[in-house]
Predict the structure.
Amino acid sequence: MTSNPTFSGLVNIGQAAALSGVSAKMIRHYETLGLLPLVPRTDTGYRQYGDRQVHTLRFIHRARALGFSMAEIAELLKLWQNTRRASADVKRIALAHVADLEHRIAEMEAMRQTLKHLAYCCQGNSRPDCPILAELAG
């Protein structure tokens, strides 16, 4: 289990990146997408992140690690921030994501089996005929 460092006060984007595990470039991207509200800036234009923003960035980071799309993350963030949410809504998103993952895994397994078979059929010698290229050529 990893620990989540905490802090008090405000930090710059580099420090927020280090605390959240999200790169500064992605933090800016999340702000552009509206996943992270715009943060206050210093007089010299530097962004200032508080504990709440860093916590949100960690949430996004964990959701991305589980493969949720940006649209799903936006929905999950709204639900997370809504104390009157119904857990059924969160579960619906999670189960839809599981179904999508299972579908993609099945597709990848089929690709793996096809390529494995084609590689088995290929002599792998100095002759030019190759079932892998023949399959790709259709």
User: Anything to note?
Assistant: Residues 1-85 form a domain with the Multidrug-efflux Transporter Regulator; Chain: A; Domain 2 fold (CATH 1.10.1660.10). The mean pLDDT is 92. The radius of gyration is 23 Å. The chain is about 65% helix and 0% strand.
